[in-house]
Amino acid sequence: MDVAAGVCACTAILLLVLTSSRVVSHWNYRLFYTAHVVLSSLMVVLLFLHTHHVRKYVVEMLAARVLDELLRRSGTRKFCGTIDLLPGTNLVRITVPLPSWRDARGFKPGQHVHLGRPLATQPLHRRLAARPRPPAAPRRPHAARRHRAPGRRRALEADRRIPLSIEGPYGRPLESAALRDCDHVLVVAGSVGATFGVPVFRSLAAARKRGAGNVEVDRGGLSFVWAVRHLTEASWTFPKESERSEQPSLLGMDEEVTLYVTGRAGGDNAVADASLSGGLELGERDEGLPEQQLQRDAQGSVVKLGRPCLRSIVDQTFAAASGRVAVVVCGPDAMVEELRACVNNWRTKGRHVLWHAEKFTQ
């Protein structure tokens, strides 16, 4: 029995190693996730049966697991939220009204939460970026990628208001005070990387409007560049009809926002777009929202077709600022590496640069 348990444990470890490869996790993330949950739980039993020498360590591990579960449950709060299916994309927008500002005080821009449905037979678990609303609207929307599943889509359409559990926040918040002290802050996002870039940008813009930080810097000291395949992918930041008086522009701020729509560019740009979008490509179609509505919703921003020239954007940013420059980026690996190379050219010239690259895992 102990020998068979040992052989099965070795097999489970081998399967864990194989399913941990980048190829498997990118091909089928559900397989990667399920294998780790099932096999890691099975290994506890197999190791316990294999030899008595490791049983005390198994008991210690189980005690730590119970403690972890208790701590996670103590940090989980339950709210009711609404789900909006964004036309023309495979995205959903989840809006969670907060009863009081005390509930919102623990969330910082750029942090993440785990979202679930309590007591559901098939809980919806997603890792989402916290995106605060303007001060006039005490709500916390999130944008999440939704896999193509007709049954799940019909369920969302039938019940848009559902109970949700929010666990977190997790992650170290970006030092916004250090960013506000820079002469210029450039925020760059690729596709769904904007779920990190948008809250950081809006937080900085709101602080500048309140007069916090370096108030002597002009409006050109803060800019946001966002590359998307289709304009509909940015629709989760568009204000709803009932919120247009509170949020007249794309991100609710008057700062410089440039949207690059790469999916509609032809010629050489279309080929280069593949490296820019990487594994974060979302929308495959633009139907669902009229072009006039998209252009109206994107008011207050500059919409351009084609791939952004990151070198030109970086050069213009450093040329316009004489002091310290902060560059914040979240997007595909190819975009981050290209932007890093452009920034390093100025760093070697003696410029003081504050660099932050946020990376999403699968």
Automatic annotation (TrEMBL):
<dbReference type="GO" id="GO:0006879">
    <property type="term" value="P:intracellular iron ion homeostasis"/>
</dbReference>
<dbReference type="GO" id="GO:0000293">
    <property type="term" value="F:ferric-chelate reductase activity"/>
</dbReference>
<keyword id="KW-0813">Transport</keyword>
<dbReference type="GO" id="GO:0005886">
    <property type="term" value="C:plasma membrane"/>
</dbReference>
<keyword id="KW-0560">Oxidoreductase</keyword>
<dbReference type="GO" id="GO:0015677">
    <property type="term" value="P:copper ion import"/>
</dbReference>
<feature type="transmembrane region" description="Helical">
    <location>
        <begin position="31"/>
        <end position="49"/>
    </location>
</feature>
<dbReference type="Pfam" id="PF08030">
    <property type="entry name" value="NAD_binding_6"/>
</dbReference>
<feature type="compositionally biased region" description="Basic residues">
    <location>
        <begin position="139"/>
        <end position="153"/>
    </location>
</feature>
<protein>
    <recommendedName>
        <fullName>Ferric reductase NAD binding domain-containing protein</fullName>
    </recommendedName>
</protein>
<keyword id="KW-0812">Transmembrane</keyword>
<dbReference type="GO" id="GO:0006826">
    <property type="term" value="P:iron ion transport"/>
</dbReference>
<dbReference type="InterPro" id="IPR039261">
    <property type="entry name" value="FNR_nucleotide-bd"/>
</dbReference>
<dbReference type="InterPro" id="IPR013121">
    <property type="entry name" value="Fe_red_NAD-bd_6"/>
</dbReference>
<keyword id="KW-1133">Transmembrane helix</keyword>
<feature type="region of interest" description="Disordered">
    <location>
        <begin position="131"/>
        <end position="154"/>
    </location>
</feature>
<keyword id="KW-0472">Membrane</keyword>
<feature type="domain" description="Ferric reductase NAD binding">
    <location>
        <begin position="182"/>
        <end position="344"/>
    </location>
</feature>
<dbReference type="InterPro" id="IPR051410">
    <property type="entry name" value="Ferric/Cupric_Reductase"/>
</dbReference>
